[in-house]
Structure formats: C-alpha cells, structure tokens
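Give me the fold.
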Amino acid sequence: MLILKNTTSYSSKKISGDTRNNWVTMMFVTHNRYMCFRKQPHIDTCLKAFKECEKFGFEFGEFGFAGNHIHFQVNISKRYSIQDAEIILKSRSAKQIFEKHPGFRKRYPRGGFCSGYEHYQSTGLTNLEDSSQYLRDQQKHHNITVIGQQNVPLT
C-alpha cells in the first residue's frame, strides 16, 4: 500500500521562460475588403513582417491567406494583452506592406491597411490541429488562386 504524505519543496529554482500557453487564432481583414493577398510577393511581405515580431515574444503557427483576409495562429507572450498584440501585429505588417509595395499607398492614402474588424478565439492544445487544418485550406475554401505562388508551406 502506497501512502502519500504532504511534502514541500524548498527549491528556489524558477522555471526559465514563459510557460503559459496562450495560443490564439486571429483574423485580420484588409480595409474595404480589397483583395490584396492574391499575389505571392504580398503574402511573403506580410509573413516576413509577422516573423519579425518573434523578437517581441510572439510564436506563430499556421497561416491562411484568403484574398482579403488572413487567418493565423499566434502564441501571445504574457507581457501583452490581446489588444496590444493585435495593434503590434497590424502596425508591423502594414508598415512592411507600404515599404515594400509603394503602390498600396494609392489604395490606402491614409495608411490604414487593416480594417477595424477583429476576430480572435482561444486555441488550446486540444483543437490546435483542427485550427491548423482550417487555416491550411483557406485558399480552397474561398476559391482563391494566388498569382506566382510557390508550393512552400506557410509556417
């Protein structure tokens, strides 16, 4: 027979890093729902902007581009709220888009690339794979053909 006793650990060793799991599936929509993500260079610029945000503690999963909006998974560091993360990600991606593709300034003269619409939902480890599959099928789901697309995974 096994008897469990109350035990106390007197170790002062802390776990390094952020151990919190805060995976969220987000969706950003382009202003006026213009079809801005139909060309591979535009998608690549947006992906690069998101990847640059990893230095702020963000971790990205799958991406799904569907012509006028982006679905993606992000693990948000505990130092940011959902709203702060959304502001950082939208502003960084818009800045990169306008720098790399100056023609977007004609369509968005005031600089608002993403609309005010926001959608996000918590994505725990239990439904992470379901969310990933949904994101991978975005182009087929919306019947979008990306011009100049290479068969490169978006992760």
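The domain at 23-141 is CATH 3.30.70.1290 (Alpha-Beta Plaits).
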